[in-house]
Amino acid sequence: MQQYDVIVLGTGLKECILSGLMSVNGKKVLHIDRNPHYGGESASVSPLEELYRKFRVRGPNNSMGLGKEWNVDLIPKFFLANGQLVKLLLHTEVTRYLDLKVIEGSYVYKAGKVHKVPATEAEALASDLMGMFDKRRFKKLLLFALNFEERNPRTHQDMDPRRITTRDLFHHFDLGPEVMEFTAHAIALHSNDSYLDEPYADTVKRVKLYCESLTHHSTSPYLYPIYGLAELPQGFARLSAEYGGTYMVNKDVDEIVMENGKVTAVKCDGEKLFHCKQLICDPSYVPSRMRKVGRVIRVICLLNHPIKHTHEASSCQIILPQTQLNRKSDIYISLVSYSHNVCADGMYIATVSTTIETSNPEKEVRPALELIEPITQKFVSISNLLVPNDDGRKSQIFVSSSYDATSHFDNECEEIMDMYHRITGTKLSCGGSQRHMSQDSDDDY
C-alpha cells in the first residue's frame, strides 16, 4: 500500500503551486496528471502546428516561421511586480527556474480610443485621460492609497474603511465618473462596478498594490515569463520534486475512493490504489462537485504587427471598461511577442477575453478585435466558469475554480491563499528569500 499525505490531480498553475507548498511543508506528495504535458486548462501549446490541430484549423503557412519557435498560452495572464504571485515565487525560490520580463505598457479604452495608463508623473501630467483639476484630485487619492494602513486609523482621514463605500470615497476626493472608471478598472483591476457599494478598503489596497508594483519599473507594473506561462507550473513541479514530491504524468485516474464522505485513496490503472489524507485537484477531475457560474470567451490572435496606438509595444495589456461598451463586465487584451521567446521573430500573440453576457459571444468581443486588426489567424474558445460546491473541509477534497476572463493573476492568487488556509488550517506567510532575482538588463526582473 502506498500512503501519501496529499495527492494532487492536474498540473495547472494553482495545483502545482499548492503541490510545491505542501512538499516544502514536509508533506509526502503524489502529483498525477492524465495529460502528457504540464499546465492543465492553462497549458502552453507548442509547436504551432499543435495549436492549429487543437482548434481544428488548417495550417500554418510558411510565413509563421518555425513551429518550434511558438509557445502559445491558452489562458495568458500577467502578474503584478509586487503581488502575491511574485512573493510566492520569491518565498519558494522558484525564481531560480524563471526569467521574468516587464510588460511594456498598460492601456485603457475610452471613447473609442486606446490611452496609456500613466506610469510616471510626467506621463500623468501629459495624459488626456483626465483634465488638469482631475489630475490634482487623482494625485491626492494616490497619496491616500499609498499611506493607507487598514489597522491604523490615522491613515483613514476620518473615513471608516469598513463602513464607508468606495463610491463615497471617490466622492470625498471629488472624482468624476471618468476618473472613477479609469481608477477602478485600469488600476484597481475591478472587472465590474459592484465594488462601488462595498467598503473602500479593498479598492484602496488594490490601488496601493498597483502603485507599489510600478516602483520596480517605469513602464508598467506587470511581469511575464520568458518562454511563456508554462514555465510557472514546471518551476513549482521542480520545487516539489526537490522536496520529495513524486510526479506521474500521462496517467488516467479511474476513481476517487471515499469512506464515510471523506477521501481515502485514488485508483489508477484499474486496481492500483494510492492512499491519501487530502486531495487537491482541478475541476475536470470532480465535475459532480462543481457548479457553473458563467462562461468565458477567449480569442487567441496571431499578428505580424504591434497593436496600433500602443507606441509599437512588443507587450502590453489593454482593458476595455464595461461602461464604455454598455456591458456588465470588462474586456481584456493581452499582448506578448517574439521578445518573450513565445513566437517567431517579428510575430505577436494577442488574446482577447471576457465573461460572456449574450448568446453571441464573438460579437461581444468585436470592439476588442477591431483594435488589434489585421489578424493573421485567430482561435476561438468558449469555456464554462466552474466553482466548487463546498469548501472541501468535510471531504478533504479541495478543488480549484476555473480561470476567469481577467488578464492578470490577482483572483487566482487570492484563491491559492484561501485554499492553502483551508488545506493546512494556517495562513500562508510569504517571507523573504535568501536568493534574489538577477537583473541582466533594465527589462528583466
Write the layout of secondary structure elements.
Layout: E1 2-9, H1 13-24, E2 29-33, E3 44-45, H2 48-54, E4 72-73, E5 79-80, H3 84-92, E6 100-102, E7 106-110, E8 113-116, H4 121-126, H5 132-147, H6 166-172, H7 177-187, H8 201-214, E9 222-225, H9 231-242, E10 246-249, E11 253-259, E12 262-268, E13 272-281, E14 290-303, E15 316-320, E16 331-337, E17 348-355, H10 361-364, H11 366-372, E18 377-388, E19 397-399, H12 410-424
Parallel strand pairs: 1-2, 1-13, 2-10, 7-15, 13-19
Antiparallel strand pairs: 3-4, 5-9, 6-9, 7-8, 11-12, 12-13, 14-17, 14-18, 15-16, 16-17
Rounded to an integer, what's the Rg over CA atoms? 22 Å
Which stretches are low in confidence, meaning pLDDT under 50 for 5 or more residues running?
432-445
Binned, the helix content reads 25-40%
Please state the structural category.
alpha/beta
- SS strand fraction: 25-35%
Number of strands: 19
Distance between the termini: 45 Å
How can the largest sheet be summarized?
7 strands, mixed
- Count of separate DSSP helical elements: 12
Which descriptor suits the 3D outline?
Answer: globular
Averaging pLDDT over every residue, what do you get? 92
